[in-house]
Design brief:
- The protein is an alpha+beta fold.
- The chain has one domain.
- Helix content is about 15%, strand content about 45%.
- It is built from three helices and ten strands, in the order E-E-E-H-E-E-E-E-H-E-E-E-H.
- The strands form two sheets. Strands 2, 3, 4, 5, 8 and 9 form a six-stranded mixed β-sheet that branches. The chain has a four-stranded antiparallel β-sheet with strand order 6-7-1-10.
- It is globular, with a radius of gyration of 16 Å.
- The two termini are about 30 Å apart.
Length: about 170
């Protein structure tokens, strides 16, 4: 069994600020339709389509929605430079978050009052998830699962540090 990278590419009911212009939040179920329609979703490094790590149609990327958000399991190819980079940077804890590429099919806008307006995504076409060191949503996650199913020692140490800082 090969090493895999697992985590949450997106979490529901979590706000972030987009480009200093508005806040954004994902509604539970916003990926349900697109996942049901079985799209060919890619897993990338830093939104770079030249650095493909996996895809749903190849069986190297698994996606599912749960009560927390969009969970993923990715099995990158360790014989490719991108696969080696993904495993290495996640193992070390340098990359521990995700982002995603999508198109909103349905959204709601709420007045922010003294704050920025809030965009709530209720239905999204999902094209890709990406491993990144600088995610727009800080509470996303990516961790390495070694072939025996246990997290790496470096990952456990990084998660403990994040818990102490209140990130996890």
């Amino acid at each position: 069994m090969a090493d895999s990278i697992t985590g949450y590419a997106a979490k529901f009911n979590s706000e972030t600020t987009i480009a200093g212009e508005f806040r954004e939040m994902l509604s539970p179920g916003c990926f349900r339709r697109t996942l049901r329609e079985n799209p060919d979703v890619l897993a990338l490094l830093s939104h770079d389509v030249g650095r493909v790590l996996g895809r749903t149609s190849a069986g190297t990327l698994e996606l599912r929605e749960d009560g927390t958000g969009l969970w993923f399991s990715l099995t990158p190819d360790p014989t490719t430079p991108s696969g080696q980079e993904a495993v290495g940077t996640v193992r070390r804890g340098d990359v521990r978050g995700c982002s995603f590429g999508f198109r909103a099919r349905a959204e709601e806008w709420r007045d922010g009052g003294a704050r920025l307006p809030l965009r709530v995504i209720t239905d999204a076409d999902l094209f890709e998830i990406t491993l990144t060191g600088a995610p727009a949503y800080d509470d996303t996650s990516a961790s390495l699962r070694v072939a025996n199913g246990a997290p790496s020692a470096a990952r456990l140490k990084a998660e403990a540090a994040m818990r102490r800082r209140g990130i996890l």
